[in-house]
Design brief:
Two copies of one chain form a homodimer. By secondary structure, chain A is of the alpha/beta class. The first copy, chain A, is about 40% helix and about 15% strand. At the A-B interface, helix 1, helix 3, helix 4, helix 5 and helix 6 of A face helix 1, helix 3, helix 4, helix 5 and helix 6 of B.
Chain lengths: ~500, ~500
């Protein structure tokens, strides 16, 4: 047994100004000394009275620290003799501060996902990324009131859950909404609410495909869908979207287990799948016994006529799963999306939502149900449809007036973004890079291709642009093209 | 060209009381007739004036319906002649109402997950499930005020995001909290916020393991972890937890890629891993180059002394990932959990959160940060720790007084549930079934075993039980055991 005087009191750098309680500081110092091998198994500790005196802290703080260390197994007490470092404890090779040993690695699927292109919005630039709705016009006063009322209700149904498919009121509200607006035939039980459309896609990729199964993905197509399909281990086959439509009869296409499409407003081309193509796609899926995921990411914003009816409403074979979101109609950080699934799959999907944790907070679900039921959602949609139509017109006119020499922007009947195709053979990544330098953040479309030689252009979101922003965005793009012209930067030259 | 009189007007069952707009009713009727083959490709439609008159609806409603059908490709207009069903459209084999074709199937991993035992709380029974915190005491007035204030702020940082790792204020608040309370060494950048701890486990299972990799899972162990590990394709190997501790030196254990543990309060045994075992586990993981997931699902509720320090704080090799949740300290439907990850993995984890959509709504994240920063969280924890300690004492006393003949309930230093082991060889699923009939909903522990012959008992949550509920729960259990005794229902008899 070492003499008391040999105890290394310098392990304590006790600081009375530190807000950490004295007991915790004593505990931390002794524990750390044991872990670093400064106090070895069997060493005797000072008495609590002695240590209290040495450090100038209250004795009960030292007692509490010793008790905690005894309980966690760092110390042992021998009655009548004293307190000792537990004999079995020896400093670990892992002791903090002594990094060593091999580094563990990430899985191949994590590498596949992190290797996908990322569209990272930069807060300090004018944002022309697609998919961002205007939020200035959102009725936050109403939203905040509905939210506070639900939060105050203390209702047990909002605090724990008996179902993971979603709040019943929201499932009903969604079923009514999609029936009227998108021609979807479903009961509230077929609606499963998730933390956004991306979560729905992630669940579906894993539920509908095993590793090695074939999935058709539109080319060019949505990177978010590609990422979750890759993560599921699927073999991706390009379903080409051309000026003639979806090339679904390409004989090179391997037989699919799943077909992912955006028929209302193809991402990124903005194309709408017409009725005859839809019927052909359904027949083809039926013959090949494939699932179809219909991603309706912004089908609500149609400026000419009504929103097109969903593919889901034409399917009687229970193979189309419709995925929708409130991220584009309300605001993206709300994180509420949903899917409409065939009746016989509901229980399995609900289970997947539970196990993967992709379940939206009940408070927000209930508030959104109130927002829809009281008519605020329909009113907001109506207002936004008019606003976006106007913004599209303004943005198009500006592009035609100032950018026609370099880029053709085609008007679209739907959506809150449009596709700009280059009139000269620019490399769109370079255009985006130079534009970024001029203060505007854009998305090059070449990154939506993963098999074919990419087309080049920009997918331009105008939803958040007021007139002034629209003007400055277009003039920054003009300066970008002028700079590229001056430098002779077309890939042909 | 068929004569006007041959048009099947009976496709319209026009209802003036229906709130669906007239144009939508006309659109739906014609579209449906085309899809069902009643109107064939090439058939001529009545003029808009004629149809308007026949149906008694305003002409502009009929015009809008025709326009929509023209746009979607169901109809074609021949100038000066009339409007026709598009020739290429033929009724699909899939036409609604004519279900046919093979049924698509779910993936093997979906089957693996849906085949796991499910602990489904029933709203109409007294809930003795583990893991449910008391919510009566939660300061909803404060919460609701903080929430409404954030919702009204319209702050752009809450409406779109530039990071998917979480709201900066919440990441800071969590880093401070775990440093003080759990002895965790981390910077705010190492904190990644998710939609609950289950989502964190789901992300980690996919990021750290490829299909076929070995994961050690505690036996008995947490079913939620087992489900996501199975879904990731991992090969599960039992890390047995006995009265002697974690049997980590069992020579039968295959070399792991990942080790999942609950060291603060093992699920379901309630055991705490002592300091020497923790060091051994870290050394073992280092030797075998395995990841460790430390699931600290309710480490905050320790009644004797302080909460034990986390395993993460003893690890200097960057292989321990700590998973925490606010579901047990606040309320489960909040859906906010987090992980503390090594610095060099943060970017990949953030990307996974983005791609899988397991990102918690920013409004709730910011509100929670406010709740913590303003001291409400610490105050709530302190109050709840005292309340749960009292409830544990009351519940234990009642069990000892009334149930000792059939079940031994061991006091635990931590948690909001306790393990009841049977004094007679009952089958716990039968006990749970009979108890359910007597009005109380419990969890049999045999379902936490997946390899070994299970032990039988009940994992009893007392967190939500006031004195009266505690009394009625115990008396329902007593009647259950009496009924089973009377029927001679022990598996030994």
């Amino acid at each position: 047994v070492p003499a008391k005087s040999s105890f290394p009191f310098d392990i304590f750098s006790f600081d009375h100004n530190d807000r950490t309680p004295a007991s915790r500081q004593v505990y931390n110092a002794i524990r750390s000394a044991i872990l670093r091998g400064i106090l070895r198994g069997g060493s005797r500790l000072p008495s609590t009275r002695g240590l209290s005196k040495s450090l100038g802290v209250a004795r009960n703080g030292v007692v509490a620290a010793y008790d905690q260390l005894l309980m966690e197994g760092y110390l042992q007490s021998r009655s009548g003799i004293g307190t000792f470092v537990a004999p079995a404890i020896r400093a670990s090779a892992n002791a903090p501060g002594t990094r060593g040993g091999p580094e563990p690695t990430l899985s191949r699927r994590a590498s596949a996902i992190t290797g996908q292109p990322r569209f990272h919005r930069n807060a300090n630039k004018l944002n022309l990324h697609p998919g961002y709705p205007e939020t200035e016009t959102f009725p936050f006063a109403v939203w905040s009131k509905l939210l506070a009322r639900r939060a105050l209700s203390r209702s047990d149904e909002l605090l724990t859950y008996t179902s993971f498919a979603g709040h019943p009121a929201l499932r009903s509200a969604i079923a009514n909404y999609v029936a009227v607006m998108r021609g979807i035939a479903c009961s509230p039980e077929q609606v499963v609410v998730t933390t956004g459309a991306q979560a729905a896609l992630d669940i579906l990729a894993r539920m509908l495909l095993d590793s090695g199964d074939v999935a058709w993905l539109e080319e060019p197509g949505y990177v978010g869908a590609r990422s979750v399909l890759l993560a599921s281990g699927a073999r991706l086959v390009p379903l080409r979207v051309t000026d003639q439509g979806w090339a679904m009869f390409d004989p090179a296409l391997a037989r699919p287990g799943l077909i992912y499409v955006t028929p209302s407003c193809q991402w990124p081309t903005g194309r709408t799948m017409w009725a005859g193509e839809r019927l052909e796609l359904l027949e083809l899926a039926n013959r090949q016994n494939a699932w179809i995921i219909e991603d309706d990411y912004d089908g609500e914003y149609r400026f000419r006529g009504r929103a097109t009816s969903a593919l889901q409403g034409m399917d009687a074979s229970g193979r189309v799963i419709y995925v929708g979101t409130f991220g584009k109609t309300l605001f993206s950080s709300l994180r509420i999306g949903f899917m409409i699934v065939p009746v016989d799959v509901v229980a399995a999907v609900e289970r997947m939502v539970e196990v993967t944790g992709q379940f939206a907070p009940l408070l927000l679900q209930a508030t959104l149900a109130d927002f829809i039921e009281k008519g605020h959602f329909a009113a907001h949609l109506k207002k936004m449809r008019a606003l976006y139509a106007q913004r599209q017109r303004e943005f198009m006119d500006l592009c035609r007036e100032h950018l026609a020499e370099w880029m053709t922007v085609s008007a679209s009947d739907s959506g809150i973004q449009c596709l700009g195709r280059f009139a000269k053979p620019f490399d769109d990544r370079e255009v985006a890079r130079v534009a970024f330098g001029h203060g505007v953040d854009t998305q090059p479309i070449s990154q939506f291709y993963s098999h074919d030689e990419p087309q080049h252009g920009l997918l331009l979101g105008y939803g958040r642009l007021n007139q002034r922003d629209s003007q400055s965005g277009v003039s920054m793009l003009k300066r970008t093209f002028q700079e590229l012209d001056a430098a002779g930067r077309t890939s042909g030259s």
